[in-house]
Design a protein that fits this description.
The chain is mainly α. It is about 40% helix and about 5% strand. It has one domain (about 25-85). The chain has 4 helices and 2 strands, in the order ααββαα. It is elongated.
């Protein structure tokens, strides 16, 4: 099989970065929120730096995502379900 010759090859810059991040289902809990933060926060060098938003260190990745407006809290969905049950 011949290798395609239509591609233009360029050398990648070797910087300190995360290569591949596997898909994680939202039901994966903290792993899902960790992946979400890794995709959004640039230049974090530790888990503490990853969870620090506006000078506040959050205890969980989920609370950091909520503060960073990457995820809505479950309160809204719980209210919707309670309203649907009441109908």
């Amino acid at each position: 099989m011949d290798f395609p010759s239509v591609f233009k090859w360029t050398i990648r810059h070797r910087e300190c970065c995360v290569g591949d991040l596997y898909f994680i289902n939202p039901s994966g809990g903290e792993r899902y929120f960790l992946r979400t933060l890794l995709m959004k926060v640039k230049g974090a060098i530790s888990f503490e730096a990853l969870c620090t938003i506006n000078g506040v260190v959050h205890d969980t990745f989920k609370s950091a995502c909520i503060t960073f407006s990457l995820y809505d809290s479950d309160d809204k969905w719980n209210a919707y379900l309670e309203e649907a049950i009441g109908m």
